Amino acid sequence: xxxxxxxxxxxxxxxxxxxxxxxxxxxxxxxxxxxxxxxxxxxxxxxxxxxxxxxxxxxxxxxxxxxxxxxxxxxxxxxxxxxxxxxxxxxxxxxxxxxxxxxxxxxxxxxxxxxxxxxxxxxxxxxxxxxxxxxxxxxxxxxxxxxxxxxxxxxxxxxxxxxxxxxxxxxxxxxxxxxxxx
Length: 182
Fold this sequence. Notes:
Shape: elongated
Number of domains: 1
Largest sheet: none
Distance between the termini: 48 Å
Radius of gyration: 17 Å
CATH architecture: Orthogonal Bundle
């Protein structure tokens, strides 16, 4: 594993930029893909957003000041690209959050959770969350990031994120309880 400063040097060096990008993708690519996928749901959409994220990272690496971990900056770029993707899809909808039904349908169509009803129910519960709550939940639950790291990624305050995570947790529990008693 290459440390962030060595990786940044490679990405800033025109001769070693390609090598640096390969190392970057080896270290962070899978985590970024799944982070994006949990926001946009569909594989094809996640691939498109990942590609846009890569372009944004390559074009913007010079703006990364190193005042925080490289991973935090990468997650921020990926989150912003995923949200931009959802915004582009909202031309038919009132808001990003109104896409939840469409995202749930995508989840069911592309599900790799075949036969695992509990996992499907959990994913549906997550998709029922408002976007900001879902992002806070995903980063905390799946990526196990601290509230401070999530704040740097999302630009939200720690208190707002704690509130979003708390409400998300309660809504997921309620959703699952409601659907299990049917």
